[in-house]
Amino acid sequence: MNVTTSSSSQRFWQGAVHILPLCLAVLPWGVLAGSMAVSQGFTPLQSIGLSVFVFAGAAQLVTISMVAAGSGFVAICLTILVITAQHLLYALIMREHVANLPLKQRLPIGFLLTDELFALSVGKRLYSFAYLMGAGLCFYLAWIAFTVIGVVLAASVPNLADYHLDFSIVATFIAIVVPMIQRISTLVGVLVSLTLSLLLTSLAVSGAIVLAGLLGMLCAVAVARWRGEPQ
Question: What residue spans define the domains of the chain?
Answer without folding.
Answer: 3-179, 181-231
